[in-house]
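Re-run requested by the PI after the first attempt was lost when the workstation crashed. Everything re-entered from the original request form. Ligand of interest: adenosine-5'-diphosphate.
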Amino acid sequence: MNCRVNALSIIASRPSRAHTSGEYGKFSKEFGSLVFNRSIMQKMFPKEIFQNIVNAADSREKLRPEYADTVAVAMKEWAMSHGATHYTHWFQPLTNASAEKHDAFIDWGTGDKVIEKFSGRQLIQGEPDASSFPSGGLRSTYEARGYTGWDPTSPVFLWEGGDGITLCIPSVFFSWTGDVLDNKIPLLRSEQNLNNAVMRLLKKTGIQADFVNVFLGLEQEYFVIDRLWRDLRPDILLTGRTLFGRASPKGQELQDHYFGCVKDRVLAFMQDFEIAALRLGIPVRTRHNEVAPAQHEVAPVYERASLAIDHNILLMELMRHIAGKHNLSCLLHEKPFKGLNGSGKHCNWSIGTNNGINLLDPNGIPDNNLHFLVLQTAIMHAVYKHSKLLRASIGTASNDYRLGGHEAPPAIMSIYLGGALEELFSDIESTGTHTSAAKSGHIDLGHVLPTLNMDNTDRNRTSPIAFTGNKFEFRALGSSASPSTLVTVLNTTIAQSLNEIMDKIDAHKGSNLTETVIPVLQEYLKASKGVRFSGDNYSEQWRDEAAQRGLPNISKSIDSFDALKSPETIAAFKGILTPGELASRFEVTVEHYAHILSIEYRTMLDIFYTKILPVLFHQQHAVANTLGSVKAATAPVKANISGLHRHFELLVELTEAAIQSAEQLNEDLIAAKSLPIGSQAKVYANEVQRAAEQLRKNVDELEGIVDDTLWQLPKYRELLFIL
Ligand code: ADP
Ligand code: MG
């Protein structure tokens, strides 16, 4: 029997609700119950140890090694009281996923007995065999040693999986020579760099604070389909997206899914992963249906950026894991379905002081917004100067299918400020003064700063980087990506621009600070003018205008990756990553890009020859038989059967064209294989991709004329609407 048809009856008999674990509804009680959090530590540790851990969590002090054993013992007690049997250092190698290697809490006791044990040394440092993680040439197998080290900025938590519980220790990952092998170390360093630069600005402008935090709120988009559909589609299983599939006659055009009523099975899944997330201390708040059928969004409340990123990686893991329990599959890919909206991960980014001032809020401090003008100028300048690097930092093979697709921003990096700010900054840039429409008077910025009144609803949904009242929303990041690289690049380049601006301000000895600052801002605003754009980023005109402004428009990520090791990047990343480490990231990124595309093309060929072509032969056979018998039957009456002839011809011609496209794809793949990896990636992204698109086009047309009961691959209408 056709397994696709069989699946329909299995899915129809699934219960509409699955069991939701936990006490749903008592969020304040459940929140952080699986986290070794500050209140637990306060109870368990003497004051000085507790203070040391809190300072380390705020990146303000190193953990004292002499406390490690005490902390480890308390952690083990707490974890075991919750049923944990193992511990692991949980880290983020350069694979876009998290990594873990579990060890039981056991050691030899006396005689042949084992005892539960966990030492400070085991807490502070782990030594996984690191030879199989990507290192971009920084390490060869014979010198494989890599170390993981506890990162106290992110709290220790318990992971429930299988039948057991594991104590997870968020960690950084580096080689035995001290080379950085993960995404976390540069992120933490970049937070520190930005903190130092912003503190210079705060001191200068007389704002009291001990330190600043970078905050991040991540809106995560995803699709949910029945798990059986995924299992019946090797493309979704292996690549996360459909490589074939004719558009369903109904897609998203009625706009009836956006903010619509969530289906019961999906809602039960959402509730289940939400409660699991809350227990892990992830403050999930918002959920809703997105534009495409089967597409949804979840957004936690913003947190310190490095923690928000750990939480996002955990959340994605939870979503995949818990979907399985509901017989669902959670697709985090940027473009699972051709012709429908893709999924992004909007990064809402801001900077705030430890005493609660949002420095991107123009009214954050009454009668003082000089710091705001300086920060905004530094941000615009950084985006302008490092536009290509920013493009690279959101660049993946999967995001390339989404960017510029009229549901996501184009690959041109520009900033939308909103009407009032746009006017303000153009005025400062051109005249050093500002005429406020509201006050209809001339305000000389040299003496009086305008009261800025930002309207949160002043929005432009087409811009890749939009100011939304008191934060920037970066919309170009893909849904499956770790935000680490993007946020590291933002922090690093903004710190660089801000330091440059502060150097210039410090060099002036003028008594009036505003008079000193404005000419410096003018200089930087002039330089970065091209990056400000308020119009429709999806339009053709913007592409032309952006080209005239000299802004890069890089549609294939592979063409941006060399920015990861350019002289400008090396200069900005001083103290964060060495030129060697940057070069290694370039290698890893290019390799990953090539592998993703190569896996897709090989999966396509496999599906074509084993699941599609046999069906086409069946169909040809059936129509040929029909043609023969109809011809014989109609011969005496000379009936017109040209339609039947044409249909048969179409079937044969399209099948022939599909076979030729598959042969072409195969040849292109073989030819590309012999090239060095960099050229291979480029050829995959261009020539080979064209052959793959041609094959898909032929097959999708055939799907429209082949007997529905013969077709093996679940169809778009089923994937999207049957659940
Ligand atoms: P929308 O879809 O309208 O953009 P959402 O409510 O879906 O808004 O998501 C907004 C995200 O921005 C949330 O994660 C929220 O916590 C976050 N956010 C709000 N204020 C800030 C801020 N100052 N800094 C960083 N993120 C913020
Ligand atoms: Mg949202």
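Saved to the shared folder this time. The pocket of adenosine-5'-diphosphate (ligand 1) is lined by residues 215-217, 219, 286, 299-302, 348-350, 358, 470-471 (CB under 6 Å).
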